[in-house]
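Two folds, back to back.
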Amino acid sequence: MELIIEVPPITVEGRIVACEGDNDPALGHPIEFICLDLKEPAVCKYCGLRYIQEHHH
């Protein structure tokens, strides 16, 4: 998990993201729906990828 912190947070437009860990189902993990209402990046509990919501002004 130390190397995953080097991956920058993934910016998405919506409030909810579905993380599968990888585009290939054989390499991924169970789908996790993550709510992005927090000011800090939300973290996938399976793979550690971080997501933030793109803010429109």
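---
second:
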Amino acid sequence: MRARLGQVDRGTLVALLSSNPNLSEAQANRIVDQIESARESVIGQAEYVQQETQRWLNQIKEQAQKQAIATQKMAAGAAWWLFGTAFTSLIASAIAGFLAVRVNLF
């Protein structure tokens, strides 16, 4: 947008407006001043929107990374709990098997 708005040449605008027999060169210059002021305002607003959008995207990216790290930590914790439960079950089964074999021997 900035490039397109920047393509308009002041001299071309003044010449175009001055070609109108009802406008003096001073009037044409005032009109061009107003056009340039409006153009600069639009460019400034567009840049502001672009900066705010980039800031917003960076915040979302950072938040997503934090959530991914938190999810990874929770998954690791759940995996350790699963391992601990399986290991405890293995030990309990081994003890129960040992006791069952020992009871049958007597």
